[in-house]
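Let us begin with a simple case.
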Amino acid sequence: MKITFDEHYPIGKGCHGVIEIIVKDRKGIVLDRWIEPNIVKIFGKEMLSHRIPSTEVWDPQANSGAGGWVANNIDPNNEFSARYILFGASFDATNIPVDNDPRYYQQDEATGTYVPKRLGPGAEYSGELINAIPIAEPYRPLKKVETIGFNPTYQPSGLPLLQDDVRAINNIVLLETTLRLDEYNGFGTTGNDYFVITEVALAGGRKIETVGSCELTPRRLFLEGPINCEANGSDMISIPVSESQVDLVKQGDQIMIVGPSGSSGDTLQQVSPYYLVLSKAVGGRDIQLDRTPVDSNNHPIVGPIMVFRDTLRIFSMRILSVPFRKSCNFEITCRWSLIYS
């Protein structure tokens, strides 16, 4: 299948490519295939260009079929690498699938069809997927990148403003994972259950082997900690002497502040519990945040708190123009192609 990359994105302003969805039946016959444009914003380009391939990929057949990370012979290996492809779906409060979900789609007045909504410029959904599917292995596992590859692009020869030769440059990276027949088939256990998958995200984060039936969304799953801290009503929080994990949080991290119980659900009535660490010296106990922690009434938070380090880094997220249903009758491969200008 020939993939044509949209050329209207300015060279050097970001990396772009496509998301490809391949649907197969129980016999492995391809029933459908479609692609959608994809953009990774410029802020992540340098990070991605150096770190996107992890040194390991997930092999579902390793460890006697239990799955495991195996060497991919690509360096470097750290949490800034793209390891995961995350999925969100449209379902209501009773876990019933919803078509034309208003969180994702709006009706076009001219054609009467439903089209993806444009996301606003603000920090909607706290950086999370709109409606992430809770992780519960083995049927709703955290989907790891299972295959990494590279493809070349070619510069055409001739004029105008082109060289006379043709150069092949391996600047397209392919990241792929597969939703198998027994995975992501809704919240129930019958053959009639399904998910309407409406969004896909490419993400990095700390290496996780298996998570079990934790029923956590990806954002909560990638929280690291907590550690004890003290809030004093300003943009500076402190790590007490009694806390041994003094360097868990580093400058540039995103953290989540919760109550002294340490529960990730105890958000102290904050509008958003997530903060950016502007300054944190190695071995130091003072953490400067991008703003003062306050509750929903704008009252500064004072006293003991707990801090989680957020290791989930979503490089790109897209609402699918064509949502697809995942049931036990279909195997669906998601292939993420990124081209570097």
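The second case is a distinct protein. As before, the sequence precedes its structure tokens.
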Amino acid sequence: MKIHSKFQDYYDSALGSFTESDVSVIRKKSIVEIDLKDLPDLGEFDGKWDTVNQGKYGTTYGYKQIVLVGFCGTWYYFIPNYDRTPNMNPDDIEYCKEANIEYKTFDEIVENNKIQSLFKWKQGKEVKDPNNEPFFKELFEKFGPVLLIKNFRTLPKYAAPISAEKKLKIEVWPELKSLTFYKVKDAYTALWEIEHWYDSHARPDEAVVPVGDDVTRLQAYGFDKKTSFRKAKEKK
């Protein structure tokens, strides 16, 4: 696989390690927006990691923003090492480049909010994992294999009309090195998954399929020459 891009990422070091695919990928950064009103109901999953600090002057409550990294059909969650302040720009996570980012499982997020939350009525409420929702799976089909949601939020249940117009920003092809994604997948595993993604999800706007005989083209679109159910048309 070849990657055409204006930036480099950590998994680029593994380029040339695999020979299964000749697909060339155009890796181009962009931002897309989704209407909050189109998001499915995730229960009490509001994108916040509740915190309780036992400081010198007593107990303080706060939260950290949960950041969603989408990679080849699966969403991963991390917690930046900051406590949210009123003056913090919710769309600014440049601080993550040198931060001690902590990746968490969905179960850890649910357990944290169950124990730490200031709002006790949240305890026991249903919390849905985006990985189990078709809507979030389809985002990969629409926009590509590597996505980032810096400031995940859902539409409040009792929102004013103006709130219904708010958007959820999704970054396409973010730089995973600055997000320490190598803690989740090493370079070779990450590149293999991206390559496999394009072998089975060839997109005309991002992948250039090699020109060749019928077998070559079918393989580039994800069909295995040994197991594909497609057969050549019989001549009449």
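Confidence is low (pLDDT under 50) at residues 227-232. Residues 187-200 form the longest helix (14 residues).
Keep these points in mind for the review questions at the end of the chapter.
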